[in-house]
Amino acid sequence: MSASPPCGIDFGTSNSTVALAEGTSSRLLALEGDSVVLPSAIFFSFEENDIRFGREAVRHYVEGVEGRLMRSLKSVLGTQAMGEKTAIKAQRWSFAEIIGLYLKELRRRGEEACGVPLEQVVLGRPVFFIDRDEVADRRAQDELEAIARDAGFREIEFQFEPIAAALDYERQVTGEELAVIIDLGGGTSDFSIVRVSPERRRRADRREDILASSGVHVGGTDFDQLLSMRKVMPELGHGTPARDGKRDLPSWAYFELATWHRINFLYTPQAAQMLKELRYDASEPERVQRLIDLVEERLGHALAGAVEGAKVGLSANDDYRMHFGLMNGSLDIAFSRGELEGAIDGAVTRVGAALDECLKLAGVGEAEISTVFLTGGSASIPFVRQSLTGKFREAHVVQGDVFGSVGSGLALDARRKFGRALAAAE
């Protein structure tokens, strides 16, 4: 084995993996105990003056350790927020620095798991970081590349995440297939139409086998936001009338609270004053007071996590009840699977339109698809899965490793991209 074997990193909106290229295969590395999946979360502990990652980060936050939890960092790439700094205790951090901390930790844990330096990497990327903005999309990749280089990676390449998933799936095929790869992640939904076969997987250049790729910036965190706006935010005053009865209350605060990476914008003196003005303007001020209490107690991320838990619960059950304690009272909300489906229906329609676009770009009809390969956490939502796979009535539906397929495929791609140098070193 080379002193620096190629690896693949799937830096996800919600979860991340690192995989090592080994011969003609790949191996996901244990990153947190025995788990090969590390939640994309960072916790800055004010009490212990240190930084925690993954499940430990979330656990510290949930247990009430004073500090700052940050998630969904990938969603910031390419946006204006990348040029801003956020205050964490006495220090101001750029989002590039915060993402860099996480990538350095991924690299460190990967090296600890395999016992060798990791310097050659293929990073996964969505088909579009930013919808309908080529300049911002390119900027997002450039930002991630610079962060990865600063994290210690010497050679950096990129691959579309659905293509990586196709490479992972191809290891199990026994004949020629025309597959649609559906990667439903936390921040994006991506698609590729790919020809796969045992013979094709031995080729170094697979460009002719990739008929089309498309994607849309809609994923699991968007479903969380939509469910929160539909079911939770009304309990805090969203959609209720102002005192004059001529209009509803402004929705800015509810949007911020329902959007994970924007919650911290509520934790400022300016926002606190605006919330007091919102309460004064409300016909039901007691609801807005709940919102103020929640923000003052810094429970925004905990609430977002509880809504995500409701979504996950509704993926397996028809009903779910959320009990969320506040200093003065609590939120006790009953959810139904039908309400989840109603909340996310428009977003799922957008995802389906992106899949239709991929078929159109490939020049193939739905009946020509022989296999549908699903990966990504949002593929676990029955309504989403059925809405997309139902287009392909004759196809074989394969459920891949929800969190590991992309990382495994990226490692296979790393073997191809860096294979010549690796063979020379060996």
UniProtKB/TrEMBL annotation:
- What is this protein called in UniProt? Hsp70 family protein
Q: Recite the UniProt keywords alphabetically.
A: ATP-binding, Nucleotide-binding
Which CDD domains does the UniProt entry name for this protein? Answer: ASKHA_NBD_HSP70_YegD-like
Family membership: Belongs to the heat shock protein 70 family.
MF terms from GO for this chain are:
ATP binding; ATP-dependent protein folding chaperone
Domain of life of the organism encoding this protein = Bacteria
On whether Nucleotide-binding is a keyword of this UniProt record, the answer is: yes
